[in-house]
Here is the input.
Amino acid sequence: MYCFYLEKKQRLGFQKIHTKDCELLPEKKARFKLGYFDNYEELIDHAKNEYGDVKLCELCCNTEAES
Ligand SMILES: [Zn+2]
Here is the structure.
């Protein structure tokens, strides 16, 4: 289980999700804490409901399970 953050990138039409330890995680004012999730499905469901279009960071999020 990881703690996830949302990077504000509305300029690009989507927002990016990082884990707490990601080296690409932006500074505090440029991110929201999403909280703890057990799996990406749950995380993405939550993030999409709350924030619209989201993408997982390629560096810190293992997207192999994504179709
Ligand atoms: Zn990341």
User: Anything to note?
Assistant: Residues 18, 22, 24, 57, 59-60 surround zinc ion (CB under 6 Å). The first helix runs from residue 40 to 51.
